[in-house]
Amino acid sequence: MSQAQLNEFIPPPECPVFEPSWEEFADPFAYINKIRPIAEKTGICKIRPPPEWQPPFACDVDRLKFTPRIQRLNELEAQTRVKLNFLDQIAKFWELQGCTLKIPHVERKILDLYQLNKLVNEEGGFDAVCRERRWTKISVKMGFAPGKAIGSHLRAHYERILYPYNVFQTGDNLPKATLTNDTKDKEYTPHDLPQRQSVQPQETCSIARRAKRMRSERGCFKTEPGEVCENRPNLRRRMGTYVGKQEPVRMAVAQVKQEPIEHEVPTEYKETVLDRKPQFSKVDQYMCLVCGKGTAEDRLLLCDGCDDSYHIFCLIPPLHDVPKGDWRCPRCLAQECGKPPVAFGFEQAGRSYTLQAFGDMADSFKSDYFNMPVHMVPTELVEKEFWRLVSTIEEDVTVEYGADIASKEFGSGFPSSNSHFELSPEDKHYLSSGWNLNNMPVLDASVLTHITADICGMKLPWLYVGMCFSSFCWHIEDHWSYSINYLHWGEPKTWYGAPGYAAEHLESVMKNLAPELFESQPDLLHQLVTIMNPNTLMNNGVPIYRTNQCAGEFVITFPRAYHSGFNQGFNFAEAVNFCTMDWMAIGRNCVTHYRQLSRYCVFSHDEMVCNMASKADTMDVELASAVQKDMITMVKEEEQLRERIKKMGVVQSRQVDYEVLPDEERQCCKCRTTCYLSGITCACSPGKMVCLYHTRDLCSCPHSNLALHYKFTLDELYPMMASVKLRAESYRDWLCSVQDILENKGTKKRGLEELHTLVEQAEMKAFPHIILLDQLCTIAAEADKVAAMAQQLLNGKRQTRYRSGGGKSQNHNELTAEELRSFVRQLDSLPCNIRQAPLLKDLLTRVDDFQQRSERLLSDESPSPQELQELLDVSLGLDVELPQLPLLRERLEQARWLEAVQQANSRPESLCLDTMRRLIDQGVGLAPHCSVERAMARLQELLTVSEQWEERVLSLMEARPYHSIETLDAALQEVENIPAYLPNCLQLQDVITKAKRWLHEAEALQLGGRIPVLDSLSELLLRAEGIPVTLDPLSRLEALVSDVQTWKESAAKTFLLKNSPFSLLEVLCPRCDVGTGHQKSRSKKAKEAMQISKKSSIKLESLCDVERALSESKDSASAMVTLAEVRQREMEMLLALRSSNESKLVPAENCCALSVCVCQKAPSGAMVQCELCREVFHCGCVTATTDLEYGQAWLCPLCQRSRKPPLDKVLPLLASLQRIRVRLPEGDALRFLIERTVRWQHRVQQACAEGVLQNVSERMGRVGPGISSHLTQEINGSSFHTDHQSVPLRGLSPELEELMVEGFLLQVTLPETEQLYRYLLYKLAPPPSPCRSNAEEDQKSPRGSPHHNKNGVSSLKKEVMNSQSKRTKRRKDSSDSQHSEKAKKCRKKKSKKSKERSEEKGEDSKRTCSPTHTVSDPAASDSEEDFSLCAAPWCREPEGDEVNWVQCDGSCNQWFHQVCVGLSAERAESEDYICISCTQPDYNRGE
Question: How far apart, in whole angstroms, are the C-alpha atoms of residue 1421 and residue 1447?
Fold first, then answer.
C-alpha cells in the first residue's frame, strides 16, 4: 500500500449502539436475544448500561502483576509482514555474500522492492519485461507518475538488487553480480522474525520505542546463531600472503565447476554442510574442492560457513579478486536461503509490571508520541496514526499489551462472592447482576453453565491492560461463541468487526492478499497475531463496522464474527464468552470445522450436550427443543461411526469415564478433536487416541487389535434423548390443551379451576413465556374478574358513588343495564363456567324496577328534592351504570342552587360580587330550566349594576387631579340604594368622612389667629396623602412647611459648623450634656439621658426632653419658661464642671491616676486649656493651638458648638420666622438665644457702670501678683505645661465668672465677649515681661492721669475729629493707594511675634498720646500709621476691596474694623460706638 493511501484511512461505518431501559437491562440474555436480529448483521454491537449502573472496581490492584506481550506494529499487518519477510530474505542473501542491503529512494520515496518483484513476476519475469518494454507500465502500477523515465530507474534497481536473488532461487548460473549502492540509499536492518521469537528482550530496551529502520550507512555484520565464531579479519579466512586490492564490495554467486549443486530445501533445520564434511588432515583442509589442488594459496578462499576451500578462478563465474567481508560457498548459500520459515508469534516482555507502573509507562509513551496530554489526543488522530504505523516498513513502533490475564488469580474487576473486596450495602446487588461477567457464562440461560470445567477466558473472565496502539488481531471466538467485553476504566478501545456470514469471505481475502503467511501457518487467523487494514478488506467486499468503546460500556461479538481493534491509551477491560440456545447448531458446525483444520477444541461439545440431557427435567423447554435437535444429530452420527468401525473389524470395546481424563489424553492425535462419546486406541501406541473419523490414522496394526473406548452405549443414549424429547413434548401437550381452551373446542366447558391448573403447570415446569400463555393468563384473569365482579354485585359491597348528592361514579368501568344483560348472556360463551351466573338475574330485575321509578319521577314538573335523594340512595345498592342517574342529579343540583340564591338575596349585607359571580357560575353549569333562568337574570342584572358602580367609584378615587368632596358625596348617595356589599363604595364613604374631618381640623388649626405648631402641620400633611380628595387648604399648608424647611436650612448654614455632629436645635438650646465625658458618643449620651429621665423625676435632662417640652408648649411664653429652666441648669452644671476640672489640676499627694483630654489619658507635655469647661487637652489630640496669641480664648471641640455668627446675621432669621407664622422648637430656641444675648449685653453694661470691673484690680492686689495662667505641674511623675494663657479662676468674683461663662455659652459673636475676656486676662494674667514693661510706661505716661484725660489729648482729639466730619465714619482703603500698601505691610507684620507687635504698638500709643505730638501736629492722628492699624487687640485683619471702619465716640477716638467689634454698617451709621477702653478706663488692651 502506498504512502498516499495510508494517509487516507477512511473509518468504516459505526456498528449499532443500544441503550436499554432498566426493565430491559434486568435480563441480559433476553435483551441480547431481542437485539440479535439487528446486531448480528454487523457482527459487533455496543451496549450502554443505564447511567446509574456503575459497578465498583473490585480487582486486587496490589496483587496484580503481569508480564505483557511485545507488539511491533508493522509486524502485525499481514501485507507488511510479507514485505518484511521478503526484505529479510533479500538482506540475508546479500549478507551471506559480504554485502549490506540498502533500499534505494525513487521520487523521494522508499522503493517497495516486494511490490516491484511481484509486479515483474506477474508480467513474466525480468527478461520478458525488458523484451516487451513494460517498465513504464510497472512504474505506473507502483503509483509513479508516467512520463518521468521512472521505468529505467526501476529496471536498474531490479537488475542490481533483485535479479541475482531471483536467478539464485531458480538455480541458474549467474553472471558476475556486484551490489553497488548509492550514497543516498538507506541501510536495511533485517527483522529476523523467526530468530527473535525465542529471544527475550534486554531489560534496558525501550518499552515502546519508535525508531527509523532506515539508518545511515554503516558497517553492520550479522553472525548466524549456530555459527562457530573465530578470530578472522572481516569474518573471512584467506590463505597465503597475497593481499587483494581495495575495491568496492562485490559478491560472486557461483557454482562449483563440474559439480552443480541442486538448491533443495533441507527437511531439518539442524542439518548443515559441516555435518557431512569428511575428516581431513591439517594439510588436506587447504585443497580446492573443485580442482583438488592446493596450489595458488593466495587465490584460495575459505567459506565462512563450512570452511571449505575454493580457488577464486575455479568458481563459476570466476572471481578476479578476493571478496571483502563475509563469504559463503554456493552450498552454504543454498542451505541458508532455503531454511523453512518459523511460525510467527508474540514475544513476552522481559519484565513484569504492576498496574501503576504500566499506567505510568503507557501515559508517558502516548504523551511523548503525540506531544500533548493524553486526554487531549483525538481518537480519530490515534486511529489514523495506528493504521499508518502498521502499514509502513520505514518506522518501528513497539508497544506492550497485558492480554489474557487470568481473573482467577488476581480477581475480577467485578465484585464476586469469593473476593476480598469489601462492598458497601448499596453495591451488594452487583454480586448477583447478570451483567457481572463472573455470572454471565453460568446463568441458567447460558449453555456454558453445563460445562463442568472452569475454562479461563471462556467461563472465567480474562483481564486486559492496554496502552496506546496495543492491539488485538483479527480472530473469532473459540467454538464460534459469543463474547462480551466490559471496559472498566481508562481511554477508549477501538473495535472493528465483520458479521458472521462474511467470515469465510474475510479469510479468503486475507489468504489471497498474503498467501505466503498462510502457506507456513494455515491456521494463522486462529493465532491472533495478524491484522489487516479494514479499508483493504472493505475494498475487497468484506463488510466492516467499527465503534469506540468508552469506559462503562459493553461490546458484544456474535458467533463467528471476526473482530479486531486497538487501544487508544491506558485502560482496563474484562472479557468472557457465553453461549445461548441459538448457538447450539453453530457450535456443532464449529467442531466439524475444527476437525478439518486439525485445531484442538476448548471443550467437548458432545460432553456438554450429554450434561444438559442429564438435567432434562429442569431444562428450559425452548433449550430442550434445541438440545433435542442437536442430540438427534449427535446420536445419528455416533450410530453411523460405530457401525462403520464395526464393519472395519474393530471388535474390542471398553466403557471409559472420559470426564476424569485430562483433555490432552483424550484428543484425537490426527484432528485434535476432544473425544467424549467414543475413541479408538491400540496397544501399540499407548497414550494415543483417535476419533472414529480417523481410525485408519492411528497405526498400521490390524483393525482387530484396535479397541473402542466409549462413554455411553447406544442403549444409554436413547433414554437420554427420550428424556429431552419428553421435556420438549410435554410442552407440546400443554400447548395443545391451551389451544383447545382458547379456541373453545369440545362439547363440554371446562371449569375455571382447570385454567388455573394449566397456568400453574407452565410456571412450575418453566415453560417459555409465549403469546398463548399470555392469552391463557388473560382469560383466567378475566374469568376471575368476572366472578369477583358478579360476587360483588350480588353482595352489594362495591360502594362506588358519593353519598352526598349522588355524585359521579368513581369507577368509570361499570356495566350499564344493557351491558349487564349482555354480560349475563355472554357468560355462556366463556370457555369456562362461572358459578355466580344464575345469581346475576336477580340484580338485573332490581335494575329494571329502578328505571321505571326514575322515569315516573322525572316526568313530574316539580319533583320533591326528598324523593330525588331517596331514589339516588337506592341506586347506591345497584352496582350498574344507570342512565337516569345524571338527570336525577341535575334536578337535585337545580333545587339546591335555587335555595342558595334565595338565601343570598335575603342577606344583602353579605351579598358581595364574588358571591354573585360564584352563584352565576354555578347556575351556568346547571341544566336549563325556567326557574333557574329567571333567577340567573336577576343575579346578572344586580352583578352588572354593582360592577359598574364599583368601577366608577374606583375611577373617582383614582382620578388625577382629585375630585372635590361634593362630587364624591353626590356619587355616594346614588350607591346607597344598591342591595349588595360593594367594597369600593364603602371605601369611598370612608374617604369622604376622613376628608371632612381633615378640613375641620385644618380650619381649627389657625382659627382665631393662632400660630400653628410645625408637628401639627406635618401630621396634617401626612394624613392628606392618603385622602384622594381635593383639599383646598393643602397647598397653603405645604407652602408653610416648605418655608419652614427653607428657614431651617438657612439657620443651619448660619450656625452649624462643617460636618458638625450637633443638630440645629442642639446648638440653639442651652446645653443639656454638660459634664459628659468626651469619649462617649452622642448617641450613647442621649441614651443615658433617656434612662436618667426615666429613673428620676427631674425633667429636661436631655435634648429629647427639651424638644418634647417645646413641642407640647401652648405658646411662646411657656416655651421661654422651659428654656429658662434649661439655661439655669446649664449654668449650674457648667460652673460646677469648671470648678471640678480646675481642682483636678491642683497638685496633691497620693492622687489617683488623672484622665484628661478626649483620649482620657494622663496629662503630659504641651497642653491647652479650654476657657469654658477648664479641661486640659493634649495639643496633639485637638486642633493646633500654636497660632493662638495672647488675648485669644480657646474652646474645646465640645464647647465650640457652632459658627457663632454675628448678631446682625441672627436677627434676620428671627424676623423671617415671624413672617412665616409657624411655631417650631428651633424658632423658640432662637428667640430665647437672642433674648439671652440682649440680657447678657445689658448685664455687661451694668457691670461696667457699677464698677464691677474696677474691683478686679483691687482683688488682684489682695490675691497677689503671683497668679499665673501658665500651668507647669508634675502629677504622678508626668510633667505637663500650658503655653497659652487663660484667665485664672482665683482672681475672679463669682459674678464676673458667671458673666464671662455665659458670654462664651452664647452662640453669637459679640464684641463685648472678646473685650471682657481681654480685660480680665490682662488684669489677672498680664502678658510676659516685654509687654509688662510697656504697660508700666503706659501707666507713667500723661495719658494715665485723670487731669490729662480731661484737659489733654482726649479733648483736643475730639475737637480735631469734630472739625473733620466725625459722623462720616466709613473709610475705604481704596481711596488711597499708599494707605492700601501700608495696610498690606501692616498685615504682614501681624505674623511677627507678639513681642514685636507689643513694642510697635507701644511706640504708636506713645506717639499718639503724646501731648507735644498732638498739639504741634494735629494731623498726626490721621497719619498713615494710625489709619492702617485697627485699635482692637483682637483684630481679624479683614481683606478685600472695601473694608468698613468705625471710630470710637468715647475719649480715645481710636479706629476699629467694624467686623472686629461686631458692628454692621447700618448700625455704625445710626448709633454711637464707645469701645471697651472708654467704657472701662482701667482696661488696658495689652498694647
Answer: 12
Highest-pLDDT range among 378-387, 654-663, 1348-1357, 1359-1368: 378-387
**Under a CB-based contact definition with an 8 Å cutoff, are residues 577 and 493 in contact?**
no
Give the C-alpha separation, 1081 to 1084, whole Å: 5
Give me the long-range contacts of 1176-1183 (CB less than 8 A, separation at least 24): 1176/1141, 1176/1145, 1176/1271, 1176/1280, 1176/1282, 1181/1157, 1182/1157, 1182/1158
Q: How confident is the model at residue 1258 (pLDDT cuts 50, 70, 90)?
A: low
CA angle 1187, 1192, 1194 (to 5 degrees): 80
Cell of 1345: 492721669
C-alpha cell at 235: 569474518
The number of C-alpha atoms within 13 Å of 618 and in the hemisphere containing its C-beta is 6
Count of residues for the chain?
Answer: 1487
Which residues, including other chains, have CB under 8 Å from residue 18's CB and lie 6 or more apart?
35, 39, 45, 46, 47, 48
CB atoms inside a 10 Å sphere around CB 761? 15
- Do 1202 and 1067 meet the contact criterion of CB atoms below 8 Å apart? yes
Label residues 1237-1269 b or e (16+ Cβ within 10 Å = b): beebbebbeebbeeebbeebeebbeeeeeeeeb
Q: Check residues 1131 and 253 and name the one with the higher pLDDT.
A: 1131
CB-based contact 84:393 (threshold 8 Å)? yes
Burial 1344-1357 (b: 16+ CB within 10 A, else e): eeeebbeebbbebb
Taking alpha carbons only, the member of 1301, 883, 901 closest to residue 1071 is: 1301
Give bridge partners of residue 495 from the DSSP assignment. Answer: 547, 565
At 1156, list the grid cell: 484628661
| Radius of gyration from C-alpha coordinates of the chain | 65
> Highest mean pLDDT range out of 233-247, 452-466, 534-548, 845-859?
534-548
Beta pairing partners, 288:
309
Assign 564 a pLDDT band (cuts: 50, 70, 90). very high
Hey, which residues does 1167 pair with through a beta bridge?
A: 1178, 1282
DSSP string covering 639-695, please? Answer: HHHHHHHHHHT--EEEE--GGGS-GGGGB-TTT-PBPSSEEEEETTSTT--B-GGGG
Which amino acid belongs to residue 170? Answer: T
The total of other beta-carbon atoms located within 10 Å of residue 690's CB is: 24
Residue 661 to residues 163, 448, 675, 680, 714, Cα–Cα distance (Å):
57, 20, 10, 15, 21
Strand partners, 1278: 1275
Helix axes 1207-1220, 1225-1250, angle to 10 degrees: 140
Residue type, 391: S
